[in-house]
Specification:
CATH superfamily: NAD(P)-binding Rossmann-like Domain
Structural class: mainly alpha
CATH architecture: 3-Layer(aba) Sandwich
Distance between the termini: 15 Å
Order of helices and strands: EHHEHHHH
Strand order of the largest sheet: 1-2
Low-confidence stretches: 1-6
CATH class: Alpha Beta
Largest sheet: 2 strands, parallel
Radius of gyration: 17 Å
Strand content: 5-15%
Length: 150
């Protein structure tokens, strides 16, 4: 990251220049769906469920939601896929995770995640968590890191 961007809280994402419908999906939403399935597995055998968030939108919109929820400016900045993947490696992500996340990012760039379903509501009877509520609920986990002193 260059000095001019050191304090502007960028969301560095690659491949997500298109709209993404699944980004609002939370582990809580997925856990609710899994609990329903495990409670009565027979009707779910052989089924594939496409769980998405409640909206499909672009990363700039998500950056605005983060800004509003956290009370500080957050902006989206697209990172070239090779550099982004290398950053994951430098952060010591296992290679299989780097390959998986890189494939997902490439599919997002192709628009493959620009969709919404009502699957979570049909399975659980509840709407998926929206991104604004998710960020507010986890605001402490998104606290701003102090700049490194040189």
């Amino acid at each position: 990251m260059t000095t001019e961007h050191k304090h502007d809280n960028p969301i560095l994402v690659t491949g997500a220049a298109g709209a993404v419908g699944g980004i609002g999906r939370t582990v809580i939403d997925v856990a609710r769906a899994v609990a329903v399935i495990l409670d009565d597995p027979a009707p779910h055998i052989g089924q594939i469920y496409d769980l998405t968030g409640p909206e499909s939108t672009d990363p700039d919109h998500y950056a605005r939601l983060f800004s509003e929820a956290l009370g500080r400016p957050i902006r989206y900045r697209d990172a070239p896929l090779p550099a982004w993947s290398e950053g994951l490696r430098r952060a010591k992500f296992p290679e299989h995770v780097v390959r998986h996340l890189t494939a997902i990012a490439d599919l997002a760039r192709q628009g493959r995640y620009d969709r919404m379903t009502d699957t979570l509501r049909r399975l659980t009877g509840e709407a998926p968590t929206n991104m604004r509520d998710f960020v507010k609920l986890h605001a402490a986990e998104f606290k701003q890191l102090e700049p490194a002193h040189s």
